[in-house]
């Protein structure tokens, strides 16, 4: 249903939030995790989300990627409004149109590199395009390790498998929650350069939550959150500028 609408009516943004609020907890003691956040992430751009602890970054990412439903407001993935979807449709959208990268890699230990990467296609009952699989594995620098299992790879290599897995469905957007949080600085740099590469050379849209100003400096723009609200945006950021802005936002 949504596929037809997408091709008939292309839109500029990959992800769009219109006045999204999220309230957790009970009516007696509500926690306003997001407060009327509106933003448009254009296709083919790399956006980092930063903010003090508890400012709503993960909630923002989860709402943007359909992992959580806003209390009010609307979230669009291309021309599909996620709140109009039932749980089955939302699961399908997440599986086929969004690539996920988490801090803990979340690979399946019993599967090889190749099997981990093609798993989203098998789950969606889609045929694996061998040429694209090879292209993606080469892009992440793992073309020589197809038959290895995650335990035989370094943390950085495992995260690059996770990046390949996120790309294999050719999603509308890739969302990454602290993708370098568990990596040393060299492996972090490789993963960030890879995310930059998929934006610049594969036209992907990337949304990344991070605590690290150096990681944020790889993005085209940084969105700052404070107390669940948008607290500014920085284009072509340097790590020094990001660190300085964060210091002004409070403890982080
Ligand atoms: N499931 C939940 N139930 C109740 N409150 C929640 C829940 N998830 C998040 N919160 C609260 O919502 C607010 C925003 O949380 P969120 O995890 O989005 O912040 P964050 O910026 O990602 O934090 P951190 O940097 O520490 O990971 C916090 O006050 C948090 O305690």
TrEMBL record:
Keywords: ATP-binding, Nucleotide-binding, Transport. The keyword ATP-binding applies. CDD domains: ABC_MJ0796_LolCDE_FtsE. It comes from the Bacteria. Gene3D superfamilies: P-loop containing nucleotide triphosphate hydrolases. Residues 15-252 form the ABC transporter domain. The keyword Iron-sulfur does not apply. Coiled coil: none annotated. This is ATP-binding cassette domain-containing protein. It comes from Streptomyces finlayi.
